[in-house]
Design goal:
Shape: globular
Number of strands: 15
CATH topology of the largest domain: Rossmann fold
CATH architecture of the largest domain: 3-Layer(aba) Sandwich
Strand content: 25-35%
Order of helices and strands: EEHEEEEHEEEHEEEEEHHEH
C-alpha cells in the first residue's frame, strides 16, 4: 500500500513517547478515522521516524488475520512493515455498530501500549494540582457519578476508562480514554483530550458505603482488584482469542499491574451518596 495514496487523519502521541499516524485508504475508512480523531481531539498528522501507522479501510474483515478484534473490526500487522497495522472495518449499520468499531479501533493502541508496560483499566481519571488519580471498580459501583460530583478544585478527565503508560524512566502517566458508549442509543458521542496526561499519584478502588473513608490496602490485594478492573476494560476481546493467546495477554497485563503497584499507592475508597469523598482522597494523597 503506497503511503502517498493514504488519507491522513491525525496523530496520537502518548506520554511514553509512543506515537501513531492515523490514516485511511478509502473514503469510508477516512470517515471512521476522522470520527476517531475528533473524539480523541488529535492534532493533524505529522511525520516522525519512530512513528507507527494505523491504516483504516472499508471492506469485510479478512478470514485469516493474526490479530482479531471482535466481530466488527480485524487488525493485522503489515507483512512489509510490522510498525504498520491495517484495520478492516465493515460499513456500520447504525450508531451502535459505529461505537463498537471505535471502541475496537482504540484497543489497537491499548494493546500495543501493554507490550510497553502500560495497561488500560476500567476506571475514571481525575486531576488535581497537576497529579492524577484513578477511581476504579466494577460497573455500577459509581465511577461516573463520582466523577460528576467532584468540586471545581478537581477536574474530571474521563469517567469510564484510563490508559496508563510507563515511560523509559519507569514513571507512570495516565491518559483519559473515551467513553464510546456515548455514541450508542441515539447519542452523538463526545470528545476527550486523550493526549493530555498526568503523573499517576494513586489508585482508588471504589466501594459503596454509608460513610466516606479511604484505607490503604496491600499491594497483593491492589494487584488483584486492579487486574479485575483491567479485564473488564478488555471485555470485548475476552472470547476472541484462543486459550494460548488469551493466557499470554493476561499474564502480560498481570505483570504490568504488578510493576505498577510497586510504585503507586492504592486505597480502598468507601464512598457515600452525598458525602465529600474527595477530601478523603486529598488527605490520603496530598497531605503527605
Amino acid at each position: 500500500m503506497n503511503s502517498t495514496d493514504l488519507i491522513q487523519n491525525g496523530t496520537l502521541t502518548l506520554a511514553n513517547g509512543a506515537s501513531w499516524s492515523i490514516a485511511a485508504s478509502d473514503r469510508y475508512g477516512a470517515d471512521i478515522a476522522a470520527t476517531l480523531a475528533k473524539s480523541m481531539r488529535l492534532k493533524p498528522s505529522c511525520s516522525r521516524p519512530d512513528q507507527r501507522l494505523l491504516i483504516i479501510k472499508n471492506g469485510q474483515p479478512a478470514e485469516k488475520t493474526p490479530y482479531f478484534l471482535g466481530s466488527a473490526v480485524k487488525a493485522e500487522p503489515s507483512i512489509e512493515n510490522y510498525e504498520t497495522t491495517i484495520c478492516q472495518v465493515p460499513t456500520a449499520k447504525d450508531n451502535d455498530a459505529l461505537a463498537l468499531q471505535l471502541l475496537q479501533l482504540s484497543l489497537v493502541f491499548c494493546s500495543q501500549i501493554e507490550t510497553m508496560g502500560g495497561v488500560l483499566v476500567h476506571g475514571a481519571l481525575a486531576e488535581k494540582n497537576g497529579s492524577g488519580i484513578i477511581l476504579a471498580g466494577p460497573g455500577g459501583v459509581g465511577k461516573s457519578t463520582a466523577s460528576k460530583r467532584l468540586p471545581p478544585s478537581w477536574q474530571s478527565l474521563s469517567d469510564d476508562c484510563t490508559l496508563i503508560v510507563r515511560d523509559q524512566k519507569g514513571s507512570y502517566h495516565a491518559h483519559p480514554w473515551p467513553t464510546w458508549s456515548t455514541f450508542m442509543f441515539g447519542g452523538k458521542g463526545d470528545s476527550w483530550d486523550v493526549e493530555h496526561s498526568v503523573p499517576l499519584k494513586g489508585v482508588f478502588l471504589l466501594s459503596q458505603s454509608n460513610k466516606d473513608r479511604a484505607e490503604s490496602i496491600g499491594k497483593g490485594q491492589a494487584v488483584c482488584m486492579l487486574n479485575e478492573s483491567a479485564e473488564q476494560a478488555w471485555w470485548m476481546l475476552t472470547n476472541e482469542f484462543d486459550d494460548r493467546k488469551r493466557q499470554y495477554l493476561n499474564l502480560q497485563r498481570f505483570n504490568n499491574i504488578c510493576k505498577l503497584m510497586e510504585t503507586t499507592p492504592a486505597y480502598r475508597l468507601h464512598i457515600s451518596k452525598k458525602g465529600s469523598f474527595w477530601t478523603e482522597i486529598e488527605q490520603a494523597i496530598f497531605s503527605t
